[in-house]
Design goal:
This protein is an alpha/beta fold. It is about 30% helix and about 25% strand.
Length: about 270
């Protein structure tokens, strides 16, 4: 069975459960599951029940697909994502994004927990991703192109929609939430970066670094989706004291910042 066949089987299964065309998709990162509070939920389907769907294995990722409405907007939420470091192939990491596309999603919102590289960032800051650097990850479009989704050589000059970034900045001012902007550097993980790696990442022009998002964005752009992404700065890579970082530290920081990120995302989606 081809990858496209598997995607179609998963979509056919979901169409038995839900018949709505969903305009918006949301991918929630580590510790950011509270976004679903307040959504008018119409269906929740655990990943393990969906044919060929990967299953979340990381703490802080609940592992279910949530369908519902936010205001007048129909949306589907990936509560828990998949990472290359879990042992999944790039095709498996981005499998859900292609499923969202066939469910009708045209605008994709992503969140993640990231390490701060910019010297002015502090733990708890929110950074709108205006661009990314993907050289340290495996491109999910390697291999035979899936022409049904997009071209062999997709343009990546604007992976993050400028009009959505502008909308977020306006909402941040309206809600009195300080939103940074920066470049996200994608790595495979699962190790946190060494001091020298952080210095290199800063040198090449990145402001934050993380273990997710980039592969999803590449495939979303290939599919013709408009993308918006935001990082919660959960730890600082360049600092004077000992550079010891734990996953629990990341989760705690993400949980603390989640209400601000949730407020921005919800306001953006409600106004689409």
């Amino acid at each position: 069975m081809t990858e496209l066949d598997k995607i179609r089987v998963a979509v056919d299964y979901l169409r038995i459960k839900v018949s709505t065309q969903f305009k918006v998709g949301v991918v929630l990162g580590s510790g950011l599951g509270s976004f679903t509070d307040g959504i008018e939920v119409t269906a929740e389907i655990p990943y393990k029940e969906i044919p060929y769907f990967p299953v979340s294995t990381v703490e802080g990722h609940s592992g279910k697909l949530i369908f519902g409405k936010l205001g007048k907007v129909d949306l589907v939420v990936l509560s828990g994502r998949f990472h290359y470091y879990e042992g999944y192939t790039p095709a498996e990491v981005v499998f859900p994004i292609r499923v969202l596309k066939l469910l009708g999603v045209s605008q994709l919102f992503l969140s993640n927990a990231a390490g701060g590289v910019h010297p002015n960032f502090k733990v708890g800051d929110l950074m709108i991703i205006r661009d990314h650097i993907s050289f340290a990850i495996q491109n999910p479009l390697l291999g035979k192109n899936m022409d049904e989704f997009g071209p062999r050589f997709p343009d990546m000059s604007e992976p993050y929609a400028k009009w959505l970034i502008d909308r977020a900045c306006s909402i941040g001012k309206e809600l009195d939430i300080d939103l940074k902007q920066g470049v996200y550097f994608g790595v495979t993980g699962p190790t946190f970066e060494t001091r020298s790696e952080y210095k290199m990442i800063k040198f090449v022009g990145a402001d934050a670094v993380g273990m997710s998002t980039v592969q999803e964005v590449i495939v979303a752009v290939h599919c013709g989706m408009e993308v918006f992404a935001m990082s919660v700065i959960t730890d600082l890579g360049i600092r004077d004291e000992e550079n010891a970082i734990t996953h629990q530290e990341v989760l705690d920081a993400a949980n603390e910042a989640a209400p601000k990120l949730t407020a921005v995302f919800k306001k953006m989606i409600e106004n689409l």
